[in-house]
Amino acid sequence: MAACTKSDFTTWPKVYESPTGASGFLNDYGNATGKKWRLTIDRKNPTSAVAYGAIGGQRTYTQVINGWKAGYEIDWPFCDKDKQYYKVTWPAKLEELERAIVGKVTDKLLGTPIVFAKVSFEGKSAVTDKNGEYKITDPAAFSGTIKASMTGYNSSSKGITSPMTGKLVVDFELTQIPTPTPPTPPPSIYKILPEPPATIHGEGIALYKKLDQALFDKNSAEIIKLLKEAILIPQSPMPLLIIIFGIAGVVGTIATILGSYPFAGFLREEAIQTLDIGIMTATKNKDVAELEHLIKTKEEILERTLWEKILGTIPIVNVVASLWDYFAATRAKLQTDKNVLAAMRLSTGATKLPEKLKANVRDIIDGDTIDVALTATDEATGNEVTLPQEGTTGHARIRILGINAPEKSPKGEIVCTGQDVLKVALKYADLSRQALLYLNDKNVTLKIDSAHQVDVHGRILAVVEYAGQDIGLEQIKEGLACHYFVEENKQVDDAAYSAAAQKAKEENIGMWAEILLPVPGAAPGEVPGEVAAPVGITFSIDSKPTGAKVFIDEIYTRHLTPTNEAEQKDVIVLWKEGTHKLRLVKGGYSYEGQIELTPGVPLIIDWVLEGMVTPPPEVVPPEVIPPEVTPPTVIIPQTLQEFFDIVKTYYVGRLYLSKKELAKIESDFKIGISGVTPLVSDEILKFYAEMKMFYVGRLYLSKKELATLGEKYQLSITGLV
User: Fold this and answer.
1) The pLDDT of residue 342
2) Would you state the pLDDT for residue 54?
3) Cα–Cα distance between 196 and 207 in angstroms, integer?
């Protein structure tokens, strides 16, 4: 009898179930010859059923669909088209026809069940329960590889053939993967510090060992000496000091042994100032490579997250606040250092600027100097070019080539090629600047000679053109500047400039009509405000708060703190060798004093401004101030109150404790002396360090201030009030 196909039936052969009357139907099961059919009924757990259809060989399986047992699959090798009904008898229990792989996974050595082991077979998987048992129902294939695996165990695989019906039992025994025993580390040679990271090597290891010993000995002077050395020892990828500070717990250990105030002092007076002195030296020597290295080191030391970590170890609030102020000021100074480096790279030819740049004018400084935006455009390529910043202005400074305009300070002085220094009517210092104000926010062309890119002040040298006009030449024609020749520059038409200046002079145009007199003592080619820094004069001036106006010998330099000789280059003539009066002013606060500028000796100023609008400090009438009193006998205090009482004896009949007397206390009790152990307790040292903070930028500690400090520490202030 031939095999049936769907077209052999007028209607599908129907299937009936008895005795309940539920019905089902036959479906094509994907075989084009019609050999394989599927019988499906809608009844839960039937005990028997009668269906009609041609029955050939058969196999059974079950599957769960929405909680119903369904499915009885038959193969139909022949077809009787005359019969529309055939009888099929269901087995007593459909569950017995289920096909599954079951088993148990255990530990081979212990024999205990393994929970959550994974067993997989040809795309299907199961996880073992609390008894180590698993079950994979209705496998998709009849034969293949079954695998059991579990974290910490070697996996196991077996080849099997799944049965047509019923269950196949496959058990597994897994062996544990042995855990390697870590080698016992050798005993550490370090007493305080942890083992150093691999980034420390060579010279760095030698210093690390010395630092460990100094910390063990609590030798404060040696600790600071070694930390200072570590600033300049390179260890990839950063200086040794930063690697040491980055090791967990090390900063806290150092700060605890040194004390908060000495550690803060190291950060201010050693770590940063050591680099600043090196930066000054590299700048003076025009050593680009060394300057780049020192600025990079300074930038790494001033990385904010490192400071957050460092200052997090210091428990004294006012010390932390002071250091954060110092951090902000020093970060601002770092930008100035970067500006100096950028200018040096231009002056040495390490960086070459395009010969024609398009730049936007941001400010007019005077009749021969303008500021432009930091980003300019190469006219030849259209590429953006970053120019070096002038100070903290946010602009690049351009010195207009070939001309010289009357100076603002001293006002009206000017030097012209072939002339002595002249002085013209004061108004021309302002008029020459005002003549350029129309250039603000305009795009100008800067024409630069790559052989002469900057002057001694770090300003970019350029012929400036706008709308096809040479701005410098126009200033000469209007009598607001003269021809000024310094050196050959291919961008300057010296003949045209000289002729224009001569014509303006002959016709008494502008300033030429009001020449006052030559400046006594000035040599041709030298103009105040246009000279290089005195050889060897270097200084760094800062204040708290920052942003104070800087006056030298009562002349306002037009600069704010923090500042140095590089930033003051436009008025560097004021900073000559010798004694000067320096005054810093911000709002209602100021501080002034004498300074000494000596070639080869860096001057470091960091003054705390005092209030001018607040009540003046207590003043002691001269007639009631007895001579300085020294306690008759040196008694070593055992408690903080005893130390406080000794300090109070210096105030008998007086209102102040001088810095000289403070040094006497240090000498008596061996406080802060290198290599000498203090004679007093840590509690007294902490109090003394806070007391000494009052002397920053000052020479005295008032009785009222000492009483306030005593109250803070809950000490008896009898005799002070």
Assistant:
1) 85
2) 30
3) 11
